Amino acid sequence: MYGKKLFVDMCYFSIALAKLAPIMHRLMTNLSSLTAAQLHRAADLKDKIAKLEKTLASILGSPSATSSAPKKRKMSAAAKAKIAAAQKARWAKAKGKSAAKPALKKKRKMSAAGRARIAAAAKARWAKAKAAGKKSL
Fold it and tell me: From residue 77, how far is each of 3, 70, 88, 89, 119 by CA, in Å?
């Protein structure tokens, strides 16, 4: 719905932009020759035109620039409950199938003697480093 309208709006915008290009070029070349009062008057006119376009849009019922975001759709509580129930059913089905997978291997544990050897080696490295006057390895 919004895609088609957006496309049409973009087409109109590009056509309007193409028509305004020569005018904008002339305006930019003449802009340096305008006085401050003329520039101020042009800015006021531009503001008035923007206000009139906004008023016209509100009269004609077209969406204004302030309400450009589409309204959010509200879902009923019953619909939310149905979706939640369906999702829970999918999870239950997936969890039921995962039980058939082979069990993972148990993690290998280090023996107490192996841990003791590693600790003794670390202590020896630190003792050697401290004897050499180092504060890090």
Answer: 29, 22, 16, 18, 61
pLDDT tens-digit profile, the chain (137 residues) = 456 666 667 667 677 767 777 776 666 666 677 788 888 888 888 888 888 888 888 888 765 555 567 788 889 999 999 999 999 999 988 888 654 556 677 888 899 999 999 999 999 999 999 999 888 87
The Cα–Cα gap between 2 and 73 comes to 14
Distance CA 137, CA 126 (A): 7
Task: Give the C-alpha separation, 21 to 27, whole Å.
Answer: 10
Round to whole Å and give the CA distance between 18 and 4.
Answer: 21
Whole-structure pTM value: 0.27
The length of the chain is 137
Q: How far is CA 79 from CA 6, 88, 91, 95, in A?
A: 30, 14, 19, 24
Token pair in block for residue 101:
């997978």
The domain ranges of the chain are: 2-60
